[in-house]
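Q: Could you fold this chain for me?
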Amino acid sequence: MIQRFIELGEGYSDIYELIEIAKANKERLLHMMTYHTVIENKEVSSLVVILKPTVPGDFQPLYICREGIPNPNKKPNKRYQLFQQAATELKKEIIELEVKPSVQFSEKELYYQYLIGILRMNRYIPPLA
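A: Sure. Below is the predicted structure, expressed as structure tokens.
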């Protein structure tokens, strides 16, 4: 199985695409998540849509708008409200995690491997066979 993060942007206008991906794939929608972190003393969040793996092909996409919106638990905002509204419509609970910021990693790919490890360890996505 291949599990890969697909970055759409930081959550400005691309959040609409993230929400459309979730709605258009409601049969494949596995999780809607928010990853909270701190960058330069600012509390920010990433929004994530995880789909079930493709059959055939075993490709599991994890769509992300990375670290671009204020943490909604500290500063309520319209972009997160839109994500929350979509989750309600799709009958999904938003899973929230505290994670390290991507700036702590020398490469974005290492950051995404770190996140995949957390998701596997917590059984949000399946381990590799």
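A (continued): The two ends are 7 Å apart (CA to CA).
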